[in-house]
Amino acid sequence: MKPGGRGDVTESHLAWEHNRGIPEIPSPLYHADRVYMVRSGGILTAVHADTGKALYSERLNASGQYSASPILANGHLYLISEPGQLTVVKAGDTLNIVHQAQFGDKIHVTPAFDDNTIYVRSEQHLWAFRK
Length: 131
Prior knowledge:
It is a single chain. The protein contains one helix and eleven strands, in the order αβββββββββββ. The chain has 131 residues and is mostly beta strands. It has a single domain (10-106), classed as Beta Barrel (Lipocalin). A four-stranded antiparallel β-sheet has the order 1-2-3-4, with no helix packed on it. The chain starts with 9 loop residues before the first helix and ends with a strand.
């Protein structure tokens, strides 16, 4: 949506619309003129932010529900499913999975980062990983 306007701005302020591969719960992530969306079943969709053109919509090989929103650090997306599967994807126009790990516990929330640590909270644990 373009900013500004009054009343029904659907026709005048809508830049584009995308109806496939959209998430039920997680927020989309914007980075470098791309919008990334993960949906349940482990499908990651990337679209060009200016045009809405789909760049890809592919499976992560990490099925299950997704409640946690994707986050970005060091040019990589971090996506985590409710069954506890973390998938790290290099940001870009094609799907490039660089790492996957299984936590073995249910995870419903988005991981958090600080300058040198990633924090992952599950139903039973809090993990902190440092470089």
